[in-house]
Amino acid sequence: MSFFTEENQKRAENIFSQYPDKRSCALPLLHLAQSQEGYLSNETIEKVAEMCEIEPSEMMDTASFYTMFFRKPMGKYRIQVCQTLSCSLAGADKVVDHFAKKLKIQPGETTKDGKFSLLKVECLGSCGTGPVVQLNDDYIEGKTIEELDRTIDDL
Ligand code: FES
Fold this sequence. Notes:
This protein is about 45% helix and about 15% strand. It is built from seven helices and four strands. It has a four-stranded mixed sheet with strand order 2-1-3-4, with helices on one face.
């Protein structure tokens, strides 16, 4: 039996129907699993691997490679700051330092109340509008630290 909810199992079956083989479904199924569980535990990755007929170690490598997959529980709000060159030149390092100080956490950590996680991530694909911050699924682009602060303070 699948570990997915009934609704997500239907989504998984739909994903399988769109690809030529099960292993090609690894990334969309990892995304689906993360959206259900909040992060990808070893147990979740093993279950997805089984569904995709992939060795668990191979699926672990895949889940660990991409920064959009979380390997531990995250805060309600994930502040992901692009650290790649264009954003770095546009002040991303200062954004990270600011939020680390403001939230009293280091990149990769979550506040004690479970509200915020701060993450450094690789290129988010919007290099001309840096610094790019991804707040959960939304992009915030080209904002000053003061503007970013107002967004975070409103949460
Ligand atoms: S360098 Fe930041 S979005 Fe590409």
